[in-house]
Q: What sequence folds into this?
């Protein structure tokens, strides 16, 4: 039985392709945060103890989960009333943190880390990718990026 010849495939394909899903590059700021621990530095100077996890970090991260990234970034306070949560260039970190970034290979992934304020001088440091913050360090004394 001979095959029927239909229209050629080229006639069925549009000349211009259009993206089916269009997204706003800033859309991640409208979403709630997600935490990842795969890059956590368990052997460096800013590692997290169990007591700090349950007493300080977990409750604060839980409170951030009810916010969007935009809310988190816009949270102001502190001495200078600036943003509590913001990216900082690796080159601006203390020398020990820069060396540790080299040892962990973080400089190959990014040129900045995100500082997340938990309370007072207590900070969490990580790499922000979209709505995900890959947590790296727990900095209870604001040593990674010392106050002037």
A:
């Amino acid at each position: 039985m001979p095959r029927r010849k239909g229209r050629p495939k080229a006639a069925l394909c549009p000349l211009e392709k259009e993206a089916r899903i269009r997204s706003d590059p800033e859309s991640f700021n409208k979403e709630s945060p997600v935490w990842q621990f795969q890059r956590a530095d368990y052997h460096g100077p800013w590692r997290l103890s169990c007591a700090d996890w349950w007493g300080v970090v977990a409750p604060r991260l839980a409170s951030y989960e009810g916010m969007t990234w935009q809310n988190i970034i816009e949270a102001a306070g502190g001495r200078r009333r600036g943003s509590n949560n913001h990216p900082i260039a690796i080159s601006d970190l203390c020398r020990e943190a820069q060396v540790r970034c080299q040892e962990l290979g973080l400089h190959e992934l990014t040129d900045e880390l995100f500082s997340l304020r938990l309370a007072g001088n207590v900070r969490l440091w990580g790499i922000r990718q979209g709505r995900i913050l890959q947590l790296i360090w727990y900095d209870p004394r604001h040593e990674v990026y010392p106050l002037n």
